[in-house]
């Protein structure tokens, strides 16, 4: 008997993912009914980064995806009892920086009381668009095995269309039943992947998937629509403008179509796939190997997606005495001194058959929007403690009944603007362990080390990690958490790799802590 587990559906990861809200951080317990975390769209892991570090290498900075990093962590939120389809939870942390300055950081996370296991799964018309080019370099055996696993996981009432795109676009199957002889022959006889050409009509491939939903008998299909795109990220023929490609994907999602992206190929270009993956409408993952591709495809058939909301928007507006600085955690978020904004064409929730845990010690499902608040300490006396630090407003259209829903809430700072806690420990608005902020600190330490290393500054690259070690050690001494412990192990492995690489290049390996580091790590 297969088990079922609730999933974050804003960019489902390809491995089994859970979204915990049970109050036991880092534990591998099941998710209680009625509280499913809603994370930002985009990558749901940093598997490529971890694999490179484990192999003894110093990865390129772009392999450390912030959304994927945060999504690997479990974050326990208050119950989703707000009475709306989406519940918005704001938090605030205040701590001294490494250079004794002030670090004030807002964090906004979301969850929902909608239980996907209580929803009836409709028939699904799945349009699979497979790139056929030398950039993709898809292993045909892995593709065949993955497609076979995907079809086995679908239901008899589902339908499948298959598009091959590259130099030209070809529809290889249309509205076929998963167990049909047509699809069996396609997998056995056709070469869908591979290809040696350099012309890739990515826009045209997506457009062909959209067209498959509207033509002939497909126009009368009573069920859900879903696109699965296998792409190298290259767009070299036809319409190549990234904005137009993304616009086509967003139009599909706004109409309720789930949209998953699997990156392939050693020359993978992340820009367009990442933007498509950040729409919040399905899987976004990169296949590290042929075996990985097969596994990703097989998991797709086990996943059911349900639209939760459309036209979602969220704004974080600083109160008097603050302005917005850097933002982290949401690919689609934008910021100015006046505020931070996040817009999503749709939010989905999902469920995967056969999944019982995240794998290893992680429940996953974490993430949210981090917004740095730059406080004006000169206004501290005028504003004082327990005054507003920021306001969160959000609005969306319910996918259930088409009604508009909105949230408007303000969070207070127990301290005056720019004032640090008297202790060396940070001040957390809800009195918790502050795990989201520890996650952010770990990400910034990894990113800072890579930044300095790529700039040729080995001393400060190693210094960032040395500066961070007492902080994470102090936090782990107070809170037992497997996610943060795993981050720490990763950071120490990266330090060893950087040190060995610097020795090989005859650079100094004497750590120099950059106390003026602008990443924003808090001092614990």
Automatic annotation (TrEMBL):
SUPFAM superfamilies referenced in this protein's UniProt entry, alphabetically: vWA-like (SSF53300)
Domain VWFA stretches: 123-305
InterPro entries: VWF_A, vWFA_dom_sf
Protein name: VWFA domain-containing protein
SMART domains hit by this protein: VWA (SM00327)
